[in-house]
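Dear Dr. V.,

Thank you for agreeing to look over these. As mentioned in my earlier message, I'm a first-year student in the group and I'm still getting used to reading structure tokens, so any feedback on how I've presented them would be very welcome. I ran two proteins. I've put each sequence directly above its structure. The first is here:
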Amino acid sequence: MTWIRTAAVGITVIGLAAGVASLSCSSTTAKTEVAEDPIAHGARIVFTSGCVDCHTPGTFYGMPDTTRWLSGSELGWQGPWGVTFPRNLTPDMETGIGKWTEAQIVTAIREGRRPDGTPLLPPMPWPMYSHLTDKEAYAVAAYLKTIPPVVHDVPKVVPPGAKSDRPMLVFPPPPEWDGRNLPPPPAAAANPGH
């Protein structure tokens, strides 16, 4: 009977030790988790979501110009929507998004609409960004408000069928199978300056 008591005491002690260790680990984890600064969080999302790729000059050539960070590009994107150019995302008041509120930036990111209601044209992947949480989208907006403003008036949208002499990436028409059920391309913005 002694060995049974010894075994029962041993199992109880091991169970208690495991419980204490479990509580200790969860308490340590809870204490060491620190909320990420919203600006740093927004910067991380901007880097990982491809914003820098399109909106920083030189990135597609392997030489991003960090002096013109997120200031837009003159490399166009041509497709059924015409030719669009990545816009200036810096807080410059005249050529960037400096006059936009954080809420307006979030609407543009997640709903594809500018403050005046005009749509963001392709290839801006706002449908992908529509899945950002409020915390994530507002972190991006907060980060964009903190970067240095850069004066850069990006080329205007070139409507479908019009010619552009600027360098551009060309999207061919969709192949038959892809194009069978695609919706028509978005109309160019009423104000081609956007």
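The second protein is here, in the same arrangement:
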Amino acid sequence: MHIAQKFEHLLDTYQQPDGHRWTGQHLDEATGGVVTRSYVTNLPKGRIEYPGYEKMRAIAKAMGLAPEVWFEEHLGEGRSIGQAEESRGVAGRLEHVFEVVRNPKTGEPYIDAEVARMTLGDLSEENVERIRTGAISDPTVGQVAALAGVFGVEPSYFLDRGEPSLLDEELVQALRDEDVRAITRESSRLPDGERRLVLGIVPQFRDQKPAPSG
């Protein structure tokens, strides 16, 4: 279902508490101007092919829905924020790590531009946004590895069709260090055999006794 059709479906299905249909003016007011009246007019007409995620999230929050509804293939009985379950697609799982992993400097979720910078050129801000919104539904192996390196998850986290594994909190903390992110990024580009070789070397450094001070 195209994003314009999804939005039209949401407007038809989920009304305001007083039973009225959401309008551009209502969403403008409810989102504090993040989503304007003209934006609401143009989106269901297909004039906005790839809406920004912040606007999609603002619309969902105003309407009392889980942001994941934008990424679902079939929209039936949508989920409220309190009833949200883990999404299966890459977009939904990426959104989950955006919510869980915070910028240690600000305590706030990362924004697309920050994540793009942390991939050191592997992903552009537009790439990150399009993967988040589902516009890129089948990202390349390199793109998935870059995102995994930034957020401290296994690349398979984004791709497995089963239940998503829990995030490794220790790894998330470690990946806040720029050197650790660089090592992770570079090792992700190596063939399996070479990665195992590097992994075997790491404990040797870890177990070394510090040199006696002079």
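From my reading of the second output: The chain has two domains: 3-83, 90-192. Confidence is low (pLDDT under 50) at residues 74-88. Does that match how you would interpret it?

Kind regards,
E.
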